[in-house]
Amino acid sequence: MPKPSLRETILDAGLKAMFRTGYHGTSVRDVTAAAGAPQGSFTNHFRSKEAFASEVLDRYFLYVRGLVAEALDDRSAPPRARLRRYLDLITGKLANDGFTRGCLIGDFSLEASGSSELLREQLDAIFREWRVPFAACIAEAQAKGEIASDFDADELADFLLASWQGAMLRMKVERSEAALARFKTIAFQTVFKELP
Amino acid sequence: MPKPSLRETILDAGLKAMFRTGYHGTSVRDVTAAAGAPQGSFTNHFRSKEAFASEVLDRYFLYVRGLVAEALDDRSAPPRARLRRYLDLITGKLANDGFTRGCLIGDFSLEASGSSELLREQLDAIFREWRVPFAACIAEAQAKGEIASDFDADELADFLLASWQGAMLRMKVERSEAALARFKTIAFQTVFKELP
């Protein structure tokens, strides 16, 4: 059986550490200590802390893409219900962590985008890609007459994903589901209101 | 003429540094170096980095309260227009920084609330206080029949402030006004739609 790669162990430890103390607050030393790896093994696998954080972010987005597919790809439900299902699915994941962790993409957007041009461009590309399946689902809901067509599906998708980040931000401060529930209730009775 | 207090200089430097590298990524050494102050003067004035960050946050919220009053207190405009004016006023401030800085309250909410219980409780109190003038303005707009009364004014105020944080988050990644403009357009034609 192949030995589990130290590279993977270091990436896992990095994700946990950066969730806790952010990009700036996490040192290579913190990560290798948490991974139980010698510091030299970090430099064997990663060019810099910035390049490492970029890989952590990519792995995290891979996980998010799986959740997006799980919620939006099941065509047995109507599109508006699938949008809602995504937010409910995320809510369940956040509840598992006691509402102490939000989304690494949002965390890095506020904390790292100002000082790392590499991460900022990567985050920009992530948001653009993230929007695509949501815009498709929203366009489908509009075509079916489930929701209003006053706004472009791309614009509504960006609005949804950004506002949801705001709800998670408030959730982290309150350590409760309240802001998530509020967002879902209000957004789905106004912006994404079901047409009669 | 009294000498400008080193305490104030250190607080100003701390605000700038924490905007750039966050709570975890800013050391006392960074702050004193930026303030041109000996490190000992920091410990003369502040108990710990956490206590210092708490004062920085309080000073920042004092500034925000001024902007809230500037936008919402002028009763010559109708309440719905005053809400919109707040977002436009903030947009102007963010444009002055080239959309590279957002809101320290949002930054700390994501980055510091998980590790500092002191800051988390302070942020929670800030959001509760911040909501009050917005809820009053929204309730006034509802009483005048300017906007719908389907939701409680407190809930709408929390929704507005949280979603606006999400728009600023996306703005920081894109370094453009787009997410702010999108939020204002969509929110004021749906959630805060003017009734006929």
From TrEMBL, chains A, B:
<dbReference type="InterPro" id="IPR009057">
    <property type="entry name" value="Homeodomain-like_sf"/>
</dbReference>
<dbReference type="GO" id="GO:0003677">
    <property type="term" value="F:DNA binding"/>
</dbReference>
<dbReference type="Pfam" id="PF00440">
    <property type="entry name" value="TetR_N"/>
</dbReference>
<dbReference type="InterPro" id="IPR011075">
    <property type="entry name" value="TetR_C"/>
</dbReference>
<feature type="DNA-binding region" description="H-T-H motif">
    <location>
        <begin position="27"/>
        <end position="46"/>
    </location>
</feature>
<keyword id="KW-0238">DNA-binding</keyword>
<dbReference type="Pfam" id="PF16925">
    <property type="entry name" value="TetR_C_13"/>
</dbReference>
<feature type="domain" description="HTH tetR-type">
    <location>
        <begin position="4"/>
        <end position="64"/>
    </location>
</feature>
<dbReference type="InterPro" id="IPR001647">
    <property type="entry name" value="HTH_TetR"/>
</dbReference>
<dbReference type="InterPro" id="IPR036271">
    <property type="entry name" value="Tet_transcr_reg_TetR-rel_C_sf"/>
</dbReference>
<keyword id="KW-0804">Transcription</keyword>
<protein>
    <submittedName>
        <fullName>Transcriptional regulator AcuR</fullName>
    </submittedName>
</protein>
<keyword id="KW-0805">Transcription regulation</keyword>
